[in-house]
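Interim report, section 4.2 (structural modelling).
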Amino acid sequence: MPIDLFDFAAERLEQHTSLDRLAARGTLRLALKASGLSPTGLRVEQLRVVLEKVLPDELEKCGVDGARGVCSGVSAALANVSVADQTPGSVDADEIFRRLGGS
Amino acid sequence: MEANAFIVEAIAGVILFAVGVRLLKLASRTHGRHERLLGIYLALSGISYALYTIPLVGDVGSLYTPVTFAGRSVYAVSIYFMLEFTRSVFRGNDAWAGWLVYALVLGLVAGVGISSIQGDWEGYTISSPWFWCEWLGYTLAPTWVGVEGILAYRNARKRVRLDLCDPIVANRYLLWGLFGIVQVICSLIIVPMYAGYEATQYFSSGTDVALGIFEILAAMITWFAFFAPKFYCSWIAKESPNANAEKEA
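Predicted structure of the assembly:
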């Protein structure tokens, strides 16, 4: 069954760390914001980069031990998920602005 | 219009039209809705600039008012495409954005329509409340473009650092935002320019030159954004945070 990537990652964080639901979702939101991304329309490859390069530091700030391991685990779990289609009406602005250059 | 200042407006119109046509050609190839919306907006803007310029190049006699009105109407129509492009790219899922488009289009239609019925076909009567209705329509639209473009650029810069966004795309957001800001400046210059015209039936040289400079700047920005020369793309790629990190490594 297709899933929402943000919900999926936040639930995994909640399960594998001492963070409660609110803190897990909030920390993930902060990591996405620092990466210039939004929870809606998030793509797997984007989430993987956030899990590798941004989220470990955010989790460490929250006192989570073994943050890199947790993030690697969530990233590995992404291989087995079927991602929900984009929200109806949503578009990938980067893709549009890339096309507008004629490439 | 003062001296040969209309030439600057004509050049700006040609550039906008050329970029618009190029985007429409791209749209015919990609069948992309956004290329089409932006292409129509820029092409219509170029046509509008040309129509405003025609009566200034030579004596068109009794055609002065109809041609100027045509330029004004085409520009008002073009704003719808600018608004729809901005809404569908940046706020496709936000109901308020749809309402904003409706409100601004309504303002433009009411402003142009009612002031014309009252006899102000050229739209230069700043003392009329309908002038301001129209003015708000064509000023708030590029304000929105500026805000969305700069916000998108701010987030895109972060993605560029993570290799999640092409630096050229990030720069295109910046240029689109700057285009909106420059268009707002043009709208602001129009206020003293038209106020002077209403009082003296003459466009002052200062505001005329200032408007020409910003119009050509806006047109050049669209050229660099959507028809960027290779040297510019290379420079942006070289100056991106990732390229600098590679240099340091």
